[in-house]
Write a structure and sequence with these properties.
472 residues, four-stranded parallel beta sheet, seven-stranded mixed beta sheet, alpha/beta
Length: 472
Amino acid sequence: MNMYEEIIKRKNEIIKKAVGIDYSKFEIEGIAFDYERMMKEVSYTFDEIKKIQSETQVGNTPLVELKNLTKLVRMYSKKGKGARIFLKDEATNPSGSFKDRRASVSVYHAKTHNYKGVIAATSGNYGAAVASQAAKYNLRVIIVQETFDSKHIGQPEILEKGRACEAYGAEVVQLTVGPELFYYTLKLLDETGFFDASLYTPFGIAGIETLGYEVATQVKERFGKFPDAVVITHAGGGNVTGTARGLKMAGAVNTKVIGASVDLRGLHMASDHDFNRKSFTTGHTGFGIPFAAYPDRVDVPRNAARSLRYLDRYVLVTQGEVFFTTEALAQVEGMMRGPAGNTSLAAAIGIAKEMDEDDILVVQETEYTGAGKLPSAQLTFAKKMGITVKNGDSLKEDVPGKVIAIPESIEQIGVIEYPLENLKRSYIKEAIKIYDKKEFSETEIEFMAKDTRSTTDEIKERLEVLRNDKIR
């Protein structure tokens, strides 16, 4: 047996030691497991998390009303339309993103359970967050980053994030795109005995609940009501899950939870050819769609991020719209942020046009920016990769991997509706494939209903449709 096979065979053993969770005790039957028990038993209380975060200066970020952008939106809205847009400025966290909330609980847990260091696999802001929090606790940290294509070319945004990790004292291991990331992370966890600060444990999701809670309470305290809708950048599902759970904890049960992703359909995220033909490394359909349809495709046995439990709506925006919004936020509101948080802001501009002008629409995150994350760096790189960059109607002319069309005004910004029913059908299809069966018990059907915010009858109807289609 070669080293790769040996490590993969011992995956569950390695993860159990590195995370400290015995996931087997939450299993029920087949696809079914006790999600709420997992979240409750292995996490911390809400008050404990607030205390953990306050001690490392995480959270309590400002809620900013984007008055100038709202005025512009109303110029292109029907009379009486154009919701008030607010921005939760998560860039004021220590490493500059909401990921500090996610990292704070995991790193605290590692410190208090006598791990000597932490490891995280990420090409995004999470690496900087883990490194920042680890520095506060004097823990070693290794960030494993998928950085290059086979020609050793890396996107400026990913390289920028790698530099941020190193600035906080992390050792950054940079890899080429492909299955190497998962294997190498397991190998390092096995060799070092460090804690696995996975994005998908209950620790990380519980850390985001404070964000949703703050959004709800800040709006309620200022305006006497909860927000009408919250727009959340959707990638692996943790941001949606944690924020939605926090909103509900605060009592905002009627607030609409809207996920937003950059439309990169047609590009394969594990493709060496496609890797550098996307201008966004997170918050896009390459994560949002597959992770919603099959959450347990991650590095732990059961994913705590389960977005279909919470989404009321899922919309897509184009790359061009996000670039436009990033510059608009800087030049109209004087806030240089992005790009990931501006995915949900771009969607909010389009959605605000549909809503009444006394409605409150909250974009629940911003992130720090830097030289490699600015539109100028990303667009210059895109041109070098042979992508056409032009002004135009982004919703009609943007072609992932080929054309980035940047709108000429807010009038051209809208959203692409992605039906949740499509995701729910894909969820059933993945369950049939992964568990290699067409018949599920009543217990499993009840779980699938909860996991997709459906009724058991709806699950049975989808199963029947897929059987008739021969699971094509």
